[in-house]
Write a structure and sequence with these properties.
Elements (H helix, E strand, L loop, with lengths): L5 H4 L2 H6 L3 E5 L2 E5 L4 E12 L2 E10 L3 E5 L5 E9 L2 E5 L2 E6 L3 E6 L4 E5 L5 E9 H10 L16 H4 L2 H16 L4 H25 L8 H16 L7 H8 L3 H12 L3 H16 L7 H7 L5 H12 L3 H7 L3
Antiparallel strand pairs: 1-2, 2-3, 3-4, 4-11, 5-10, 6-9, 6-11, 7-8, 7-10
Helix pairs in contact: 5-6, 5-10, 7-8, 10-12
Length: 323
């Protein structure tokens, strides 16, 4: 099997394979949805060699499968709003990407992407090749653990944080509106990787394990986290989470904080506020509407919680993106 050309084309490689029509405007590309898809688009910008940033929204009429065989080591950061993207790779179980921020590592084995039929898909992605990272670090005479080889140490708790999501939202609106200068994408990409490395470093220096979490219990706690992330606005009861974890409430709370470095309540609130950030993109929803959907009858309390998590008020977030 020959190599596919994601290094040069990014999502354009899949677009070419699917016979999509692509319109280009300098570094920007707009991939037109073919007949087997509907209601959407993929917008992409390639600001530097080995770096591709995209935002997409579409629905597939039939299940789509695309296999990549990428020669160069790379990382793929996704921020999922909605939809089903599943990656499979030899020697690893299939991985369905769930909201919110996820990391896929290419290790020179064929990587298959499957997109479910009939389900709206909305996401932002940043494909980062190791050669781009190396050239950036070398040019600036910086040494920092953000290469592909370093990413093996990054866990979901290092990647899926409110600050990371804020950066991904800045990238999303930059791509969709052609509103960021090309160097900004380089800086935002390095910021993402630096946040991942910093979160790992901070955990290693500050984490105090009150309770040792076994591998078996870690898998159970991941089910709890996945349940919260899948639909944070439909808040699960404590009883439901205890059943998923097969733990008592006190054991669940202690184990969850030990594994993820924050209380169960704090994690649920962060998940709700990350979903709120995504909902702010929809013009037809007022901040009061979004507050109600997030379980806040008082918009002022919602705004305070949003600012506490993201460091910015909902209205300022909208103003910052011209929404």
């Amino acid at each position: 099997m020959g190599y596919t050309n994601e290094f040069e084309l990014g999502w354009g490689a899949m677009a070419k394979s699917a016979s999509m029509e692509t319109h280009r405007n300098g570094a920007y590309a707009h991939h037109i949805i073919p007949d087997i898809w509907e209601n959407g688009w993929i917008k992409e910008v390639s600001p530097a060699k080995g770096l591709h940033v995209a935002s997409a929204w579409f629905t597939a009429k039939e299940r789509i499968e695309y296999t990549m065989h990428i020669k160069e080591p790379c990382l793929w950061v996704f921020c999922i709003d909605t939809g089903s993207l599943t990656f499979t790779q030899q020697g690893k179980p299939a991985r369905r990407l769930s909201p919110f921020t996820q990391l896929v590592i290419n290790n020179d084995k064929p990587l298959r992407l499957r997109i479910a039929a009939g389900e709206p898909v909305c996401f932002t992605s940043v494909m980062i090749f190791d050669s781009f990272i190396d050239s950036f670090l070398t040019a600036n005479q910086i040494s920092y653990p953000i290469r592909v080889s370093d990413a093996a140490l990054w866990n979901p708790c290092h990647i899926d944080t409110p600050l990371v999501m804020l950066v991904m939202e800045q990238i999303r609106w930059g791509v969709r509106g052609d509103s960021l200068p090309l160097p900004a994408y380089l800086c935002k990409t390095i910021e993402l990787l630096s946040l991942f490395a910093h979160n790992l470093d901070r955990e290693q220096h500050q984490r105090e394990r009150r309770y040792y979490v076994t591998w078996e219990n870690e898998q159970k706690l991941y089910r709890v986290k996945e349940r919260i992330d899948t639909d944070p606005l439909c808040r699960p009861s404590t009883e439901e989470l205890c059943l998923l974890a097969e733990m008592s409430e006190s054991k669940l709370r202690i184990a969850f904080k030990s594994l993820y470095g924050k209380t169960l309540y704090a994690y649920i609130r962060e998940a709700v506020m990350k979903r709120a950030m995504q909902k702010l993109a929809y013009d037809e929803l007022s901040i009061k509407n979004i507050a109600t959907q997030c379980g806040y009858q008082n918009p002022a309390k919602f705004a305070a919680a949003f600012k506490d998590v993201h460091g910015i008020t909902p209205s300022d977030f909208r103003k910052g993106f011209g929404l």
